Structures are given as C-alpha cells and as structure tokens.
Amino acid sequence: DEWGATVVAVSDVNGAIYDPDGLDTDDVQDHDERPGMVSGYDAPESLSNDDLLELDVDVLIPAAVGNVLTADNANEVDARMVVEGANGPTTTAADAVFEERGIHVLPDILANAGGVTVSYFEWLQDINRRQWSLDRVHEELESEMLKAWDAVRREVDDRGVTWRDAAYVVALERVTEAHEARGVWP
C-alpha cells in the first residue's frame, strides 16, 4: 500500500480472500491476529489457495510453503512476475513453463534472503559484543539487499538469463572468490 501497490488477495493455511479493488492490508493483518485468521476476514470473495494462484495479477508472491507452483498449474498462473517469498515454491518444471511464457521469477535465494541476512547481523553483533539499533539493522539490511539486487540485475541484463540463473551465477562467483581468497579452510 505505502509503495503504491494494490494488494488484491492474501491467504493463510485455511484459504484466501480476494477483492479486485484492493484489500486494506493493515485491517487484514490485524484480523489475522484474531481467531478465524485471514480466511475468516469479511472480503468480497473467498477463494481456495489454488484459485489464488490463478488470479490475474501483476505480481504473485507465494510466501508460505514449497512446491505450490508446479507443471500442473503453471499454465494457469496469470501474473507477469512471481516473487518467491517461500523457500522453493516453484518446481523446476513450473520454472520452465514460466520461462517459456515470459513470466519472470525472482528466486527465493534473492527474494527471501532478508531473514538469513538479519540472522547474520545477529551473529556479527554477538561475536563483536555490540548491539545495533533497529534503525541500523534496517539500514544494513536495505544496503545488503540492494547490493544483491543490483548484482543479480546486472547478470540478467549482461547475460540475458533468467533471474534464477543470474542469482546462481552471482552466488557461485561469490563462493569462488571466497575459496580463492581463503583456500580450503574458511
């Protein structure tokens, strides 16, 4: 909402809600903390989680479990981009279908890397016996995520590969650089 996007559907383990005019995400989030969760929210339309994956949207963000986008439903996905908020939500077969259909997939190793990055910050604070402010954590996270985004974006542009392949290229280059700098022992 605050970045200009209109969120038209959200889901939980019990089902999905949909409003083509947009959901009040703050209200939905508040409701999610009460009994009945998202699927009990008073929205114009209730959907199954499978139906949610087939909505006509600009961006689809599967953010709960793996293997929800498969060869069986990839041709029914009606999004311009998939952003993998969950670990491994897209099977290899679905990935191939999306590439063929021109649907960009922002891979999990980039899209949901914030959590593991903040875990790294916690480790840094611990070994250095320092405590960062929440603002510093946010600043550092934004900086790291933007650097990763820029590196992957360059590979997409320079090599003409998928976002997933570009992310793997960046990851492998970083591992190679670390190995060459440090040798076998970390």
TrEMBL record:
Keyword Transmembrane helix: no
Pfam families: ELFV_dehydrog
Glutamate/phenylalanine/leucine/valine/L-tryptophan dehydrogenase C-terminal domain residues: 1-183
Recorded superkingdom: Archaea
Entry annotated with the keyword Oxidoreductase: yes
GO MF, one example: oxidoreductase activity
Keywords: Oxidoreductase
Protein name: Glu/Leu/Phe/Val dehydrogenase
Species in which this protein is naturally found: Halobium palmae
